[in-house]
Amino acid sequence: MALSTHRASPSLAWDESPPHWKFDVFLSFRGEDTRWGFISHLYRELEFWQAFKIFKDDRELEIGASISPELLSAIEQSHLAIVVLSPNYASSTWCLDELSKIIESMEKGKKRILPVFFNVDPSDVRHQRSSFADAFAKHEVKFSDQIEKVERWREALRKVANLSGWDAKNYKCERELIEVIVKRVWEKVRPTIILSDSEEKLVGIDFRLRQMRLLLAPEEKDVRFIGIWGMGGVGKTTLARLVYEKISHHFDVAEFLFDHGPLINLQNQVLSQILKENISPVWDEYKGTIFIRKCLSNKKVLLVFDDVDSCDHLEKLAGHKSWFGEGSRIIVTTRDKRLLTERRIELSFELVRLNDNDALELFSHKAFEKDQPEEGFLELSKCFVDYVEGLPLALKILGSSLYKRDLEAWKSALDKLKKGCDAKVFNSLKISYDALDYMEKSIFLDIAFFYTGVKKGRVIESLESCDLSGHYGIELLIEKSLITIDQHNNVRMHGLVQEMAWEIVRQESREEPGLRSRLCHRNDIFHVFMRNTGTEAIKGIRLCLPRLEEADSSWNCECFSKMPKLMFLEFHNLIISSGPKSLPNSLIILNWNRYPSKSLPAGFRPNILAELKMQENNLVRLWDGRQDLPNLKYMDLKWSKSLKETPDFTGIPNLEELDLACCDGLVKVHPSIAVNKKLKQLTLYGCKNVKVFPSKIEMDSLEFLSLEDCSKVKIPEFGEGMKNLSLVYASGTASEELPSSIEHLVGLTCLFINDSKSLQSLPGTAIFKLKSLRELGMSGCPKLKKLVENTGETKDKPPALRQIFGGSSMKRKLYMGFTGLFKKKGPEPVCLALPSPGALSSLQGLFLDYCNLCQGGIPDDIGYCLPSLEWLHLSGNNFVSLPPSIKCLSKLRFLNLKRCKRLQQLPDLPSNEELSVFADDCDSLKMLSKPSQQGRFTELVSFRLTTVNCFGLIDNEGLNNGIFSMLSRLAAQGISPSSLSLSGDVFRPPFDIVSPGSKISEWFDIQSEGDSLTVELPPDRESEWMGIVFCVVFANQKDQFDYFQIECSSPGIRREYSVPMEKPGIRRDHLWVSFMPRGQIQDTTSCSIRFSFVAHFYTISGCTPSSNCVKRCGARLLYEQDLKNLLDGKTNILKRSREYCDSEEAEPGEGPSAIAIGSSNKESVFKRLKA
């Protein structure tokens, strides 16, 4: 929330914003009675001392024609009217006309009138007696032909006399009366005084106001408490002020309260509008609370409590909904989300930072008084914007400080920022830190220095190992908006908040880093170790260099001896020539990448060590003999090339994770690891020289075991208690058979034993007991000939595996486990063996690529046996068609049929929400599926079909009806953005096809040569259009590439759309047809949007864009009538030309298209509607 150059915010509504009055007060009086006495004193007090803007009906104005347009306008544009009724007031027709207009304005609800009875009796005014009777006697004679005017004057006097006002004779002197009048004017005018600058607008405010509008619900009569929470400087107060300005005039009582100062003062501020001068201020908190409950219970109240940091004041000022009348709204802003929870404020939202565009606009306004940076300042402006990460307060402070400064001053200011936080920003953010207790401050500082970007669970464990309440502390800091948890469950902290934390620690000792409690900056750490200035004050050191850096000879590791209280140590990418002779035994976290020594120091006894992470080191061994490390949970020694053997694990009973991946020199794993009861993960991936490994393991807590590429290790026997092991990666081991004890792994879901060159058989009976097994990988096992040791007869096998054998040789059988399979290539055809229905109910992926499956090789009942199947890979096989039961695979999302050279027709496809079918390079493909079955796609959300190089699809009505039936279903459902598949920053469109073709039909009424086009959008009120259909012609590419994709991008869409393709390359031109739902277009109020289509080619060396791949593009706005025509068959969408497909050697772009999108009606639907 922040200020910019225009005032243009959406109405929050309790119907509209308060009117902006030109005058605060209109004074109506009889000049000859009061001009030089009472009126002059009142005017001076109002305008000069209270700064109100007053319109005074001076004599000079009266000299002109009867009541002028200027005077009428002044009455309309005044917030209040003070009518001073004196003895000769009624004798002036000018005054009476003026009063009539004031009364008329009041009755329209636009004016408040405050009458003053000056030397007259209110009763005489009401009944027109005394001097008022004399005046009207004259008026009736003078205006005998305008008697209705006279009656209007009389009625105006009666009405004004009935209003509450002041009788001058009740006051001792004029001064006392004037003081009372000024006080009342202030009470009436103050709620509409603008708290923020009315000349400016709030950048990024629109969405926030919409959020507030939903929570405030002005049409509801209930009492509502609404919370706004967020970090300091994010704009909570600014938003609350704007809301207050917009709606306060709709309430009987409206107060904006800053939660500072004594409670008594705040109570009196709330009560002042009710009690006015009738009672003395309250001086007792309890009585103040009683008064609030009693006086406001029948009033429509708006209270804004700003920057609340405790519940105390809130409890005594707005303790319960029952304290206020119907329609009341209580708004609370705070940095502490927990406070809202404690006060049971359920309607709340977090005010987040500005996005990059809004941040740049705000910064530019402050720095340049423009919406964008001036020429030459753009990149520097972006640096400042990136630095503050969208925090409005910091953007305003930094932008203002750079106003009218030259480029060199900007560069200098940026360098200064990199060294420390701006003082004003620091002081604002530090308010949240100061509210923490000692333990909470320690947790906050530890996170700022050591744990940003670390998994929440690991941070909690690390903090608790330091005797800090990690879980409670993390939750509290989240509630106080000091940290966040990202979508990957990592702990995050705003950059400026982290800078604030660094500055707090820097203030512990400005000159000497060695006297500070925490160090994380390179220069500070180098200073301490090169000058040997370490002290016992240092509790943690974290040095994470962006690239390898070698310290010079002055680096002194003996500095560690001066740090007896060091608990956290992390070095990353630091190269030093020699290691330390000692390390503090107080260490809890030791993370030293590229540790230089061959072992840890001999005297190092870190009894409270919880994490040991030493990757890419020179260690030959960790230590000699046994070490008692009861708190050690994590040990990571990846890429320790020189490590020969692991330590004795007997003294590490609570170890949970051990990672020894890629320790090439490792020969022996200590046998004590086999009985570790707490170990959850054991990784030995790539330890190809390990010879000594336990033959049996009994790790009851183990969940993950990796022995991949341990080519000299056999898979061990498993203990009966190993029920938690779910993932076993044992590819490339020396096992000749799987141990029968694998049956104990009842929780096993994935088993990979690929490339096991010695593996000869599987324990079939044991495998059948693994009911949770979902993935089984056995490829590349040349000696594996049979599934069970003794095959016996089929009837003797467990019912879960009833084989269907094809071919003449047992060696060519295709064996299949519970979720995967073992396949063998061979010249003779094979058949897929499936178990009885239900046995493979958990199978999600089936991979049968290049298995020489011929017609009949896939069981007819495949759709009934695999109810959970999501991925079916059948590429490179020789069948002609697929079984009809494929349509019964209700979970299928991915069907790969690439390079099935004999495939002629696709079966009916499942009517699933999401489906991708890849049928590239199927030379014989002529039909997709039966046209009559295409109407089944009733639940379709996303569909993709690629038929690259399938030139046999000619004159196919099935393709025509099928594809566009799918398109119509998608459009009719109005695809929402949340239902789309995401891949990085690129959206996969909900519908797209790729097929041979070189021309775009006239059905696409918007066409352009090259790789871009502009689509003119209809007016937003025309709700019939449902989206845009695109058609792109792209050329075949002869260059070498691994894969390429075409992207559709535009500033007007939410994400880029793309279609990827892989080699072998496209032999001729193709078409990409895709549908973009209307919901993906960010601003449908724009007149037009320009779309660009760019191809990117990817190789192992990187990505290269191509400017000549896309030849032509077309588009069409899709309307409901289009869909009806498609569904009724009235529109001929796809045209095909045999000549294109028969001319195998035709050059790209020559000849008619294989697929063209067309219609007999060439006129745009949009143009027809506009006509």
UniProtKB/TrEMBL annotation:
Species assigned in the record: Rosa chinensis (China rose)
The answer to whether the entry has keyword DNA-binding is: yes
User: InterPro entries this protein is in?
Assistant: Apaf_helical, C-JID, Disease_R_plants, Leu-rich_rpt, LRR_dom_sf, NB-ARC, P-loop_NTPase, RPS4B/Roq1-like_LRR
Listed GO biological process terms: defense response; signal transduction
The question of whether Repeat is a record keyword is answered with yes
The EC designation for this entry is 3.2.2.6
What name appears for this protein in its UniProt entry? ADP-ribosyl cyclase/cyclic ADP-ribose hydrolase
Domain (TIR) spans: 21-189
